[in-house]
Amino acid sequence: MNKYKLLILIMFIFCVTTISKVNAKIKNYSLLGRCIYLDAGHGGVDSGAISNNFLEKDMNLLLVEKLANELFYRGAMVFLTRDGDYDLANTDINRKRNDLYGRVKLINSSNCDMYISIHMNASDSNKWSGIQVFYSDIKKENKKIANIVTQNLANNLANVREEKKENGYYMYSKLKIPGILIEAGYISNSHDNYIIRKEDYQNKLVKNIANGINDYLNS
């Protein structure tokens, strides 16, 4: 009889311990139940900006994949407009506009909580540098997202520029859910080009973008 009591006690302790661990793990999923659409700019025949064999499209995708993993780790459901080296155009006629339309269609039909689009900036001059967040005021929440993400980046990374309203971009004026465009640096700038290739910097950048997303969605 004592053996059975001991067995029951052991099983009870095991169940309580397991449940506590599960609950603790769930509480760490700060984005559980949230849906986020990530857009890696360019792709396929559209390389984006190029500098010394550095293709913007490749870095955009790498950062999006890292960000997707970080958000998934926090419990979010994550969708990607692309997960490989291709664009979303289905015709060569006005291919760029068709590609952007395909991205808009995917994101708008998702019913996600927000989107993040990742690009790299470029200029004819080497003097321009830094990370910058752009937003369209077509959705009033966009400015708030831009501000929160920018603050997270500025608190932990150097050379983060002030967020900027931009209503002239076709894609972002057509999106029906809140979101922002992040220019993760200037590949035309030697310093930005150098640090964005470093994995530690990429991970730090992605983590702070995710922190900004978390702060917005839980505000």
What would you say this structure looks like, in words?
The protein is of the alpha/beta class. It has seven helices and eight strands, in the order H-E-E-E-H-E-H-E-E-H-E-H-E-H-H. Helix 2 packs across helix 7 and helix 4 packs across helix 7. The protein is globular, with a radius of gyration of 21 Å. The N terminus is likely disordered.
Helix content: 40-55%
Low-pLDDT parts are 1-27
Mean pLDDT: 90
Give the biggest beta sheet. 6 strands, mixed
Distance between the termini: 55 Å
H and E string: HEEEHEHEEHEHEHH
Shape: globular
The whole-angstrom Rg is 21 Å
- List the total number of helices: 7
* Share in β-strands: 15-25%
Q: How many beta-strand elements?
A: 8
Topology:
Blueprint (H helix, E strand, L loop, with lengths): L1 H26 L7 E6 L9 E2 L2 E2 H18 L3 E4 L14 H14 L5 E8 L10 E4 L5 H16 L7 E2 L4 H5 L4 E8 L3 H6 L3 H19 L2
Parallel strand pairs: 1-4, 1-5, 5-8, 6-7
Antiparallel strand pairs: 2-3, 6-8
Helix pairs in contact: 2-7, 4-7
